Structures are given as structure tokens and as C-alpha cells.
Amino acid sequence: MSKIVVLNVDDDDVTLMLHKMLVKALGFCDEVENFISGESALEYLQSASFSAESNYIILLDINMPGMSGWDFLDKIDHIDGLKAYVALVTSSIDSRDQEKAKNYKKVIDFFIKPLHKNHLSSFFQKVKLLLEQ
Question: The Response regulatory domain covers which part of the protein (predicted)?
């Protein structure tokens, strides 16, 4: 199986730390990377660190200063060979965000913060099924 890399993208350090702890506790991936902005995560995916052989699971905040989660999703659609599976993780309770998320083929799940272990486990199971196809 290809390498699985989780990218946590959120403008809050505490959220990044908690999500990384949850991801590691579930043991689903080979690597976890934290990014404080959409721009820094995008730079990573556009750099030599990116591997078309890897599967990228992205836990993405929507409302961030600078590049929003929506802007990030628009940008990653143009990265050739990117195998990405996204869970939007947001404090927004606006139902329009959930509707908008349906327009992005890479978005697999949508969670309202705080993210719980059972949410993440469910998301990872959906990704696992997609990877087995």
C-alpha cells in the first residue's frame, strides 16, 4: 500500500496539537504534518516533499486568515497526481458550508469542532474503503 500522510491545516496551535495526538492514537498513517495556514500546506504539496505515490489525508479548517479552506481546496485541484482525501473541520455551524463542501470531490467528510476520536476513526474508515477500490 502507498504511504499515507495526514496534513493538519488549522490556524490554531492547540487544535493542531490535539488533532495530531488523535491521529497518532489511531495509528492509521505513516506521517503527520501540521500547518498553521493554507499557504504553508499548499507550499508543502507543491514542493519536493510531495510524492505522487503517497495518499494525503487532509484535516482542513475552513475559516483561516489569508488563504481560507475553500481557497486551499480550489488550489489543490490543480496539483497533478495528488491523491487527497479531505475532512473539513470547522467551528462554523452555517449549513451553507456543508452544502458548499458537496461541490468538492476531494471532500469526504465535514465535522464541527471539536473533532472527536470516533469522528476521525469513521473518516479514516471511509478513506480506507476508497483506497481499497
Answer: 5-128
Distance CA 44, CA 127 (A): 21
Q: Using CA atoms, how far apart are residues 76 and 111, in angstroms rounded to an integer?
A: 20
With 0-12 / 13-18 / 19 or more C-beta atoms within 10 angstroms meaning exposed / middle / buried, residue 110 is buried
3-state SS assignment for residue 87: strand
Phi, psi of 18 (to 5 degrees): -65, -45
**Total count of domains within the chain:** 1
**Domain carrying residue 65:** 4-131
10 in Cβ contact with 59 (< 8 Å): yes
Please give the model's pTM, rounded to 2 decimal places.
0.95
Q: In this structure, what CATH number is given to the domain that contains residue 29?
A: 3.40.50.2300
pLDDT 10s digits, 101-132? 999 999 999 999 999 999 999 999 999 999 99
Give the C-alpha separation, 76 to 90, whole Å. 19
